[in-house]
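Marked as duplicate of an earlier ticket. Keeping the data here for the record.
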Amino acid sequence: MRWRILAIQHPRLAFARAALEEYLPRIAAFTPCVFESVQPRRTEDESTALLRASEGAFRVALDPGGRQPDSVSFARLVGQWELRPEKSVAFLIGGADGHFRPLLECSDFSWSLGPLTLQHELALAVVLEQFYRAWTIRRGLPYHRE
């Protein structure tokens, strides 16, 4: 299984770049995972660009209206997604306006990070940390505490 985190634009804020540098190598100890910045073509919106970039993947759209699993439940979901027939899972992080309805309708899972509105680069940092946490939970490592 290949894990992909797709976001509009490469992070500009230092904390988001630092999160990529910190968590991608940690995640790589468990599974292949890449970050890809998606640039819309001149004739398409951000959601269309994310759909194009995630073609053939199991799509997990970050959306405030999605499910809000706790970390242990999210780890279980990651385990279920790992068994899917698709060759990759793509986490889709939109820009400032979020995702348009067509992307949400084409997504296989809608994930909310909580009721707060998060700036998209902050959402990226949270996704990276929670994905790493999910793998440590699955492997029984002491990173997660309850």
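See parent ticket for discussion. The chain has one domain: 2-138.
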